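Possible regression after last week's pipeline update?

I re-ran a chain I had predicted before the update to compare outputs. Posting the input and the new output here so someone can diff against the archived version. Not blocking, just want to make sure nothing changed silently.
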Amino acid sequence: MESRVETYYLIKNVNGFEEPLKAATRAALEPDKRELERAEALSDEGPEKRPAWEKASYYLVPKEEWDREHCPLMPVDLS
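New output (post-update):
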């Protein structure tokens, strides 16, 4: 029996606008997500704080779900 590895997208969301940054396995994307979240938190320190709507959030979404519901213009891998 063949084991299927699910692919995920690392999504960046700023002010409700979502952008896929990278595709890989969940395990491979977790460190990237943590690093981006850490960089986001560090960039918000100090006197020049950005408004809430300019802050980015990051999350992982299964590629199949994202392609089916959000990206009709992106190529879809049906394999």
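Follow-up from reviewer: compared with the archived run. The chain is about 30% helix and 30% strand. Marking as no regression found.
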